[in-house]
Amino acid sequence: MKRSKAVRRDVPLHLWVVLARAFDAVNRHSRTSIARFGLGVTEFGVLEVLYHKGELPVCQVQQRILVESSSTTYVVDKLCDRGLVRRRPSPADRRVTLLSLTAEGRRIIERIFPVHAETMRRAVGALLPRDQTRTIGLLRTLGLGAARRHKTSEPTSPD
Amino acid sequence: MKRSKAVRRDVPLHLWVVLARAFDAVNRHSRTSIARFGLGVTEFGVLEVLYHKGELPVCQVQQRILVESSSTTYVVDKLCDRGLVRRRPSPADRRVTLLSLTAEGRRIIERIFPVHAETMRRAVGALLPRDQTRTIGLLRTLGLGAARRHKTSEPTSPD
DNA sequence: AATAGATATCTAGAAATCGAGATATTAGAT
DNA sequence: ATCTAATATCTCGATTTCTAGATATCTATT
């Protein structure tokens, strides 16, 4: 399969294209898998992080599920309505709201998580374990670098 | 920086998390950069692919911009309204609609693309060129494998 | 040529996500 | 103490994207 001349030569741009494609391909597994359980990816993300980390401020959940704060509010609202998540004001800092799983929420994520995890293990199974580990290292550098660059270029001028 | 025990041990799941984070971090550069020009990422994607590949059927554009067909229709509508893209029926196959840039569309993407490309090169600049090439290879394998697995598991039963 | 299945595009309505900004609170500097 | 900047959460309205399915056309098989 050929690449266009522009991209074949331009390694950084090619990397960006391939990153987007790989994410999309794996993400489709995630979406389909989670949809089986009547949840959206973001809803699942909230349940999952509370399951593994315990009670957390909204802002910390937000950082982990990779959406904007207003979207977080929206999803948490839905989960509260469905009785899977509970809000309570933080005693330490009156700006923050703490989130935790209800008994029902815990029951559900405990049942769902292992099944979904297995799906995702298969989704990335085209890479050998050794290459998976390599890729983790490379993507961590890439991701952290991109995040840092974005943060430092935001307050100042665009270009 | 530590990882939770569950993920630290579970290499495939960790890979999925890191992939999502890396994509998100780089994607923010893309979004911010493209927003400067008063376009959405998907709109930019359409202009870009028509710019580099010339006239194309809607379905081929769709595959490259990684959204569903109905979303493609939506974005193309907007670009046509703005006079940047033109539709015409394919003479060869009466199901397909061919898309191409108008003079105005070409003018805009010609001006925008180099600027955006440079932003994206910087966005992935945390990796050395050598590591960028390595990552491309690994992500290609990962992405193609995931796409194949998803395709073959879709028509049959979920699990 | 007739039918069944695949493909291409689009419609309609619902759902997810974003951006800007309001509000309250905390932290830091003077 | 006071003032300013930063942080946390939420509201509102607009935009984007999805899912499901309608329609038309094409392909392949019988």
* Elements of chain A, N to C (H/E): HHHEHHEEHH
Largest interface: A-B, 61 and 61 residues
Which stretches of chain A are low in confidence, meaning pLDDT under 50 for 5 or more residues running? 155-159
* Rg estimate of chain A, integer Å: 19 Å
Q: How many angstroms does the end-to-end distance of chain A come to?
A: 36 Å
Give the CA-based shape of chain A: globular
Helix-and-strand structural type of chain A: mainly alpha
Measured by DSSP, the beta-strand proportion of chain A falls in: 5-15%
List the helices and strands and how they pair.
The structure is a homodimer of 159-residue chains.
Chain A: H1 5-9, H2 11-35, H3 41-53, E1 56-57, H4 58-65, H5 69-81, E2 85-89, E3 97-101, H6 103-123, H7 129-153
Antiparallel strand pairs in A: 1-3, 2-3
Helix pairs in contact in A: 2-6, 3-4, 3-6
The structure holds a DNA duplex (30 and 30 nucleotides).
Walk me through what this model shows:
Two copies of one chain form a homodimer. With 159 residues, chain A is mainly α. Chain A is built from seven helices and three strands, in the order αααβααββαα. Chain A has a three-stranded antiparallel beta sheet with strand order 1-3-2. In chain A, α3 crosses α4. The longest helix of chain A has 25 residues. In chain A, 31% of the residues are buried. The C terminus of chain A is likely disordered. The interface between A and B is large, with 61 and 61 residues. Chain A binds a DNA duplex (30 and 30 nucleotides) through α4 and α5.
